[in-house]
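Run: sequence + NDP -> complex structure.
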Amino acid sequence: VKRNPNETEFHQAVKEILDSLVPVVARHPKYRELGILERLVEPERLITFRVPWVDDQGIVRVNRGFRVQYNSSIGPYKGGLRFHPSVNASIIKFLGFEQTFKNSLTGQAIGGGKGGSDFDPKGKSDGETMRFTQSFMTELYKYIGPDTDVPAGDIGVGAREIGFMFGQYKRIRGGYEAGVLTGKGIGYGGSLGRTEATGYGCVYFVNEMLNSRGLSFDGSTVVVSGSGNVAIYAIQKANQLGAKVVACSDSNGYIYDPDGIRLDTVQRLKEVERKRISEYVKEHPDAVYTEGCHNIWSIPCDIALPCATQNEIDQESAKKLVAGGVQAVGEGANMPSTLEAIDVFLKANVLFGPAKAANAGGVAVSALEMSQNSMRYSWNFHEVDDKLHQIMKNIYREAVQAAAEYGHPGNLVVGANIAGFKKVADAMIAHGVI
Ligand code: NDP
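>> structure
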């Protein structure tokens, strides 16, 4: 805390992991003796840079760009770029730290990284977004490459932004290094199934948890927060498995539709027209719009899928979910539950799928995109989706096994942290003190 003052999100992520690792370090003193924990809480590198650009009025704007190259012990740095006004070093470091363990859990050879900018994409024209992303890449290109560091999308960075960044990278570097970014369009090296991967993967993971208690999505009532990439495809897959999703949100408020949210309307409003979720009720008058997001968790449901942002479920919201009968929570977003909220869920015996396991499907398919780029070959949608499904089942199994092996049966927070940690820690030991 002294070395990283004011980095509250980073402290929160580190505390969650370190608490889980107590039984591992007790059983394997080598991790303490070789300074693994001290090394893990220090990123290999944090790069910050100026991003100047010119808006549509001809005014010069300046944002700050970040890339954390957190840990490369099991593969090239891999992790998304976030464009949101809240982005700062603490947010990027917490995300890079989490990403390191998540990527390890996928079973693929990818290290941990993350990046982004405090640029706010809301209300920007295509031209402004393009000029900003080109300026951002003009600095970032120095640090990335298909075998070094492979960024992808995250909040505020979708297919349009990845396209602009890929174009600028190609222009600066020459040649066609398709594997330098993932989340690309299908026509120029993207993978089928990548758009759906995080949302689908989260639902696959929760389905495994439900099955362990003889439950399923079929006939259940689900609340999803957010209405971005992760939320939309979590809703789609939950619907396909027979659930009724009754609510979703954006950063202004949430909609509740007791008949089940019409996903086609949400997709058109958010993906095509880039409008606010409040517009939904104009087309579906039986639905209700509420300003502010906090109360979405007071809607009674069987399954909650937080898919918007960090710390969106606090202790009070967790208590409301439990009072409303929630049986399973799957974190589609990164760190959406506070430490106190997780405690409420675990004490109430709610099935809880932590982010680094439940939302690992996105980066897993990003790694599949890298493989396809290297092979210059494309798998069809079903091949990618089958691989994703298998990966999510494996992550679930490994988390369950690690939790039981270290004395916390059924606690997937502990299980995912331990399973993700051991592979990274053992690789670090093999590489010596670096
Ligand atoms: P998008 O930008 O596509 O969507 C984000 C959604 O969350 C939007 O509905 C947005 O509302 C809402 N939101 C953002 N910030 C806030 C906030 N401060 N308060 C309330 N709502 C907010 O992002 P993604 O769907 O890609 O990402 C969502 C989460 O999932 C993030 O935590 C991300 O790190 C995580 N994640 C994403 C992966 C991916 O593959 N995309 C992979 C793994 C994790 P609005 O439109 O108003 O901004």
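>> summary
Residues 381-405 form the longest helix (25 residues). The CA atoms of residues 71 and 112 lie 5 Å apart.
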